[in-house]
Amino acid sequence: MYREQSVRARNQMNKFGAERTPFVFLIDFLSEKPIVIPIAECANKRLFFIFPEIEVLPDKLESIPSVAKFHFKPVSKRAYKKAFKEVKGEMESGNTYLTNLTFSTRVLTNLTPKVLLGNVSSKYQIQLDDQFFCFSPETFITIKDGIISSCPMKGTIDASIPDAESQLRSNPKEKAEHNTITDLIRNDLNIIASKVHVSKPRYIEEINTHGRKLLQMSSEISGTLPKGWHAEIGDIIYKLLPAGSITGAPKEKTIEIILKAEQHSRGYYTGVFGVYDGNQVDSCVLIRFLEQYPKGFFHYKSGGGITINSKLEDEYNELIQKIYVPLV
């Protein structure tokens, strides 16, 4: 079934691309519930988004409650330690050298997916009905004038720390994690593009969180697609999935480790969402993710990259740092 759903989604994307029909794609982490629909059908499907150059919004945006509530209790350090040690054991056995480990945190909030759309500060915003809201800062891939680019985001530090940018750049663990993902994405792009190179190495972006700021490090990797790429857009996207920045390396084995070590189902979290406007593509990785569970419960999903040099306390704190809503 998994393969059938992926093939169907990929073929539909190729068809829309060949016809130059504007469409969106929403692909979950394991591609078990991919959605590929024309942009014109998004509103009927209750799928709304705000991208830098295009948006689809409901007839009326919700207002933020006069008193915004956002309280959470993260996974216990004991539970996190168990998964962390499992990942470290796989590294010591040589099965992985970078693994993105994530957890789900129960949240008490009146900031529903419908309320958050249009009321946060983020490069990308996606809302699927009452199911989830994502305010992602991370680009997955862009395609413009036949040039494909990917911008993996790896490396995080609290911006209030003295000399934070210098510390982030010089931290051996963060540098190793970032370089590993950059190499992985470069190898991924080489599958579908030529002249692949790091077009913008290790640049720093400031991310606004709830009451504080983070610095995050990204690199841009670019390549040239063959002529006729529009009719192969589904093949291109699926050859790059899952995104390297939220899996690890080597990718296939690391996915096995993730499914074994993590204590929740990622679903659409760490999947991808993208827009094809008939000429170009913009897309993001679905991180910074609030999901509504049955009976009105909310869960916020977050995590980070683990390397052999990772320290339990640092990684646990990073997971917590990423639990926020940047209201405007």
List the helices and strands and how they pair.
Blueprint: H1 2-19, E1 23-27, E2 35-38, E3 47-50, E4 55-56, E5 70-73, H2 77-92, E6 98-109, H3 113-116, E7 124-128, E8 132-136, E9 139-144, E10 147-150, E11 153-158, H4 164-170, H5 172-192, E12 194-208, E13 213-224, H6 233-239, E14 248-249, H7 251-261, E15 272-276, E16 281-285, E17 289-292, E18 298-306, H8 312-321
Antiparallel strand pairs: 1-2, 1-15, 3-4, 3-7, 5-6, 6-14, 6-18, 7-8, 8-17, 9-10, 9-16, 10-13, 11-13, 12-13, 15-16, 17-18
Helix pairs in contact: 1-6
Query: Could you list the spans in which at least 5 consecutive residues all have pLDDT below 50?
Result: none
CA radius of gyration is: 19 Å
Number of E-type strands:
18
How many domains, as an integer?
Answer: 1
- What's the main sheet like? 9 strands, antiparallel
CATH architecture field = 4-Layer Sandwich
Verbal overview:
The structure is a single chain. This protein has 328 residues and is α+β, with helices and mostly antiparallel strands. The protein has helices at residues 2-19, 77-92, 113-116, 164-170, 172-192, 233-239, 251-261, 312-321, and strands at residues 23-27, 35-38, 47-50, 55-56, 70-73, 98-109, 124-128, 132-136, 139-144, 147-150, 153-158, 194-208, 213-224, 248-249, 272-276, 281-285, 289-292, 298-306. The protein has a single domain, classed as Anthranilate synthase, CATH 3.60.120. The strands form two sheets. Strands 1, 2, 9, 10, 11, 12, 13, 15 and 16 form a nine-stranded antiparallel beta sheet that branches. Strands 3, 4, 5, 6, 7, 8, 14, 17 and 18 form a nine-stranded antiparallel beta sheet that branches. Strand 17 (289-292) and strand 18 form a beta hairpin. Helix 1 crosses helix 6 (233-239). It starts with a helix and ends in a 7-residue tail after the last helix. The model has no long low-confidence stretch (mean pLDDT 93).
